[in-house]
Amino acid sequence: MVDETFWRRIKENDFQPAPEYPLDEQIAELEHLLTYANSQVRDGIAFEILGEWIQTGRCDHDLPGLGDRMAAQLLRGIGEVGTDSIFGRSFAALVLGLVVERDNAVRVLSADDIRPWLGGFTMWWELEGDLRGSVDAERGWAHALAHGADTIASFARSRLIGTDQARALLGSIVVRLRTTDGWGLFAGEDDRLAYATMSLLHRGDLGVADLAQAIAPLRVLGRADLRIDLDAAAFTRVNTLNWLRALYLQLRLGVQPMPWYAPDHHFDRPIPQYERMLAEVESLLREYSSWFRED
User: Fold this and answer.
1) Coil, strand, or helix at residue 141?
2) pTM more than 0.85
3) How far apart are CA 114 and CA 156, in angstroms?
């Protein structure tokens, strides 16, 4: 089954599983291919097919098991930077998000299923040291922060995630931003992190005090002495500023669900204390730039 031709036939056949092999064997092989360094195999075959099967219910019989395996994969090779192990971790996060997303539609998981996933995900999210975006033409995207942000957005919309867990995820986004020293996030990570934040705020159970507490540690990065581009910490400052800009813009313009999301009207829910949240982000933005007009 490792032959690419086998998998391309599945794609050409409207993603129908091959009848000559048990479905679970095909799923296991795709999980293995998710760790490949070659983007044509990992992204173009494994993720496309497995993602399609998750979304169309072909993995519903083993959704808890699939989530368990992806959560375990998140920590394989953790601590390595610049190696190909990042692809397995980053794409495990992406698939874990799809598993949660599938449950948002069909509701087959329990809180006991999702709790360890959230714990493992948060550990990986805050510890991952390899923040490369596009690696090279052959290996393609690693994009760990973008994939993790997408997963947070799915967790945020889960009925199985409580207020305390949502509050912790909001704080974890800020923790992650504060630990990006030496990495410039210039491949859309800021927008996806902002969208994950909006997904949390649209839950309706987080208020301005929660947002203010989460972003308070970022105020120190607005200091003028951290505006030196040659300082590795300046990347942290720029990354944070870009996230704040993206969040402010998304708060202003509003956001909509992704096409693959369950029709749950999540983003139709009003954000509590919206004007005060907007003012909180605006206040912090003003500390980051001398270009903004004084109030």
Assistant:
1) strand
2) yes
3) 12
